[in-house]
Design goal:
Distance between the termini: 27 Å
Structural class: alpha+beta
Helix content: 25-40%
Order of helices and strands: HEHEEHHEE
Number of strands: 5
Number of helices: 4
Radius of gyration: 14 Å
Low-confidence stretches: 86-96
Strand order of the largest sheet: 1-2-3-5-4
Oligomer: single chain
Length: about 140
């Protein structure tokens, strides 16, 4: 995703707590992460900051957070209810797509018995998608 982020003018970074072990299908986990990052890079906008973060606590949490325009509370609620295509409040610039990226994330997370939440980012801007996995 680094080349795509560079082309979009997005600062893509990682923060992590160290080793995190979960029970997951590697191909599906990669697809989940790719969809999260692709969505953030595509919708956050130029000069945005996108961070992939892992947090190990009671659960193993993977977050993708951006400081772009984010989603309205109504759209976050629609996503939480599993409604497909409840995409960004701004048009995805320079990318095709049908608004299924976050719905795919939810489906994959469900297969891995993980929980997905959609929140506003810091200062009520952007979007933070949190996926909580049971630790191994």
């Amino acid at each position: 995703m680094v080349p795509a982020a560079l082309r979009a003018g997005v600062d893509l970074g990682y923060e992590g707590d160290g080793l995190a072990m979960i029970r997951a299908e590697p191909v599906l986990l990669a697809e989940l992460l790719r969809n999260l990052l692709d969505n953030a890079v595509a919708y956050a906008g130029p000069r945005a900051v996108v961070t992939l973060r892992t947090v190990v606590d009671m659960d193993v949490v993977v977050e993708v957070e951006d400081n772009g325009p984010g989603l309205s509370a109504d759209r976050r609620a629609a996503l939480a209810q599993g409604k497909r295509g409840a995409g960004s409040d701004v048009r995805r610039q320079g990318h095709g797509g049908y608004g299924f990226g976050l719905a795919i994330v939810q489906e994959i997370a469900s297969l891995m018995e993980a929980t997905v939440t959609f929140e506003s980012g810091p200062d009520q801007r952007g979007l933070r998608v949190r996926i909580a996995f049971d630790p191994v």
